[in-house]
Amino acid sequence: MSGRYGQSYRNGGYGGFGRPEPVRQERERPQPFQQSRPPPPSQQRDDDYDPYGDGYGGAGAGSERYASPPPPQNQNLNPRPPMGRNLPPPRAQRGYETSAERELNQVLDHIKRDWPGLLESDCNVVQLALQLLDNSSVGRAHEYRDFQRTHQTLQTALKNIVHDYHQGFNSSIGTFHKIQGSIQASQKRLRALKESLATSKASLTATDPELKKLYAESQMYGTALQTLNEIQELVGVPDQLEARISEKRFLTAVEFFQNALRKLRKPELDEIGALSDIRTYLANQETALEDILVEELHEHLYLKSPYCQERWQNLAKSQGAFKESYGDVASVVPFQVVLDGLELDSAVTEDPQKNPEADTFYYVTLLVEALNKLGRLESAVDTLKQRLPVELFGIVNDTINDVDQKHPSSLRGGSNGSHGLHIYGNRETQMRADVIYDLLWALFGKFEAIAEGHRIFHESIKGLIRREGAGNNIALLGSFKELWNLYQNEIRSLLHNYVTTDADVYQFSSTNRFGAAASGKGDSAREKLFKFADTDPKSVEMATEYEALDNIIRAAVPGLTTGSRKGADSKKAALIGARSEARKSVGAAYGSQQNSGSYKSLVEPSVFNMSLLLPPTLVFLQRLKNIVPPGSDLATSTLTSFLDNFLVNVFQPQLDETLSKLCETVFGEADAFQQDADWSMVAKRPVFKGATAFFTVITAFCRMLGTIPHDQALSSLIITQMLRYYDRCFSWYKALVTKAQEESSEQQVLKAAASMALDPGEVHEVMQKLWTAESLDFELLEKEVALLIIQSNEKKLEPSDIIQDRDTISSLCLLYTSMKWLSVKVSALRHITKTETDSSRSALAKPEKKRWTLLNDPSKAAGDQGPVCIPMTQETVQSFDSLLTSYEELAATALLTLHMEVRCRIILSLQIALSPETAPYLLDQEVSEPDPEILSLNSEMIAYDETAARFLRDREVAFIRTGLGLLINSYLISNALRVGAMNAKGCGRMQLNILVLQQNLKNIEDGVDLARAAAFFEMFEKGPDAIVAKAQEDAANPPADGAVATKDPNRFTYDELKSLVELCYSEQLYDPERGVAAAAKRQMSDKLLNLSEYMWQS
């Protein structure tokens, strides 16, 4: 009612009803709960009609006309009766009034005065509403604003009334409830009084015979004697029960306890106060007996009892633990034989003559039977589920500590600080394998023994349900899936700790398993409050507390701490101390990067540990399939699904990261592209140090991949790194053959030799054919020389086109040998498989065959046995083959660059030697020494040849050497006119240069002879007549075998002889006297005419 009429206005009221300005201010206040609506049709039709003028807000007031009132805030108040029935008294009779009452009375007076029809009981509000909407002369639309203002003022007054009197309303409600309670209590007392009166009436009317009284007394005495006998029997219950518990005869103890409890619960013994101590004892002993049974069950299910050590040690030894630390373990009965021998159709009986703990499986069935008779089996199952994570964590931690003590840190093959980026040798791998196998075989032996115990526990409960006809109780039979989930978490945690090196790749912490909330977020603040691991078990305070606790337990629950548990306190103290030390050591050695609560890593984490971790894990999972009960909620086919998830989501990213970092380390070494000092151990020719290191990384990863299930995504990672290495080598090649920034132009940035080796063209094609030809093709050599001379004449070579650094030549030779060596080595890794599993392609159908098999030999993962390959499908092998082609092409490019580089050097040197600016051949005196450029060319060719012979094979060296003499011969003859003018002394200088070149080339190219160039310039000395006579002689005696003229040093082409004739007259043509030059020109024309006649006739 208080919120029924909209928002209240504290400072308003009907007292200011006649003043327009305050009303306007009230109307202009924002109304948070009101929504503006479009004006009614009448207002839309006549927007100019405003009977109250602009004093009341205009359109603002109209927007509040149909505002929806807020919901009622107090529905417990009774609705106000109609105003017409309870009109307020006259103003003179009211006495003292509050402001709210005064405001309400003013509103009522106004309504009575201006709207009297609203106070009548038969008021028709619809008719009034229609009149307010009627804009005609008979309508009351002009009074609508007054009606609205009255309504608003009434709402404000009512709210103020409620605000002033709400405490009284609330107190009246509480008083009403008290009155109602008092009435109900009075009714109950009246009923009791009525029943008491009826009982008194019946008692007063009954008779009291003496015989009936004596009979009642005799019955009472007989019952008392029987009660005394039962009390006497109950007095001996504690001693007998404790004796049975101490003898581990729990089935008999439960039956005895239940019989005593039934006797004690008889109605006639309820009022005996002397039995209160026994009653309290049995009430406590029921819980204690359940705790004892559950604790005994834990002792045998989680291998805490010494009777369980034999079985898990035998399982660890049979699985593959080759250490002799367990001594000679006697063979135990196979688990399948134990399952076949179980007789669960009848209840288990105790044999007082034998120790029940000697047979763990019989003892578990006995405990299950005792818990069932006690009626606490379901509670025990819940307790087992709750304690399962903690027990498994303790087993794993204890096993790690045991192995940690057996293996010194110096004998674990570790490499501190490498962060998993280390390729282990055979000795290091074997040491790591010893530690990992010792840990996993022992741990999985315990896991298998625990699983066998849970299977017996499961079968025992299943037999009980079948005997009692309880149906399929999921709550009792569903613990095996919980066990497997925890096994899965522990295995995943171990794989994570020993494989991953970066916490960002895969976040896993065992504390989340029993400390995390349902939302998945751990309560980190709660974890830091208190930890038992932080206590000191050897302190005096702790020993005193343990002793006091033991005394309390013995006094409250006798039998719980018997003679067999005298060393329990020391055992618990030692256990807490061991776990405390183990948890404090987490973070040391290799586990420094792990979170609190995770396990300590015994060896350095590395992806190469995967080949050591998987074989024991697969053996355990295979054996676990035989333990999983048939028909359970755990499908044996899904036992390895978490390994698939681990490989895809954890191992593969870690492998990619490790492989990338290792390769990046190889690529980033300063001497990666330097000669390997130990190249002779891996190759026949020197290779890059980075190439051998890269192949070592690839080999190690391929060997590791051979021990895990094949996945094309893993093979693709290796191929990707091979492609990265090719890109690095090609970039290195480009850096070697690229001009310096100040030397290069915008059109060409590569050296001349590299440009011809890379860019497709005739020169590149001829070089390729020369290299791939089975035998030497002289025509291809001549074509190559001709193309080179033409190209160099069209665009002269610059010194920047030549590789000046000898180390660059050595690097190119190393690049060729490294690429060839790596191509041969990588091609040996090629292996096509039929397995098409590819985790990187989710759309690819999964193969029908099982992915996880036991084909891996654990000893093979620790050594170098077995072939090393990259398994690939037909689709992946195409990328691999194209990569090998790229290696071969890069090697060929480097070789072609070497082949062309020496030729570019010769052309540049001869180009400088023939230039009249640097070496004029119009001399006044004879020259006795060759040109410096010729001597420099000789020294460069000798150094070049020595470098090539040191790094390359004979075939590559022959490819570089062959054709150098032909190039010099052809270039000197075809470009003879570059000398400008030449006389006899200049010709002697040329012949001296040719002789020096020939003597030097004999040390490089076999059978080299520059006789053709020498004969060419010898004819210069004989004069033009001799040249014409030589042409006439050659025309008369053509070669009989049709051989090419260039093969015969004494035969020349027309162009060559023409240039020689022009060279003979060059001295006269360059004479400053016009007459001499004109006469020489006429004589040269005559000689050329004769030369053409003889040469064309031939």
Low-confidence stretches: 1-94, 321-330, 415-421, 503-529, 562-597, 843-850, 1042-1046
Average predicted confidence as pLDDT:
75
Regarding quaternary structure, how should these chains be classified? single chain
Q: Order of strands side by side in the largest beta sheet?
A: 1-2
Total of DSSP H or I helical runs spanning 4+ residues: 40
Distance between the ends: 133 Å
Shape: elongated
Strand content: under 5%
Query: For the report, how would you describe the main beta sheet?
Result: 2 strands, parallel
Question: Which percent bin holds the helix content?
Answer: 55-70%
Q: How many strand units?
A: 2
Alpha carbon gyration radius: 55 Å
- Class per helix and strand makeup: mainly alpha
Identify the notable features of this structure and list them briefly.
mainly alpha, 60% helix, elongated
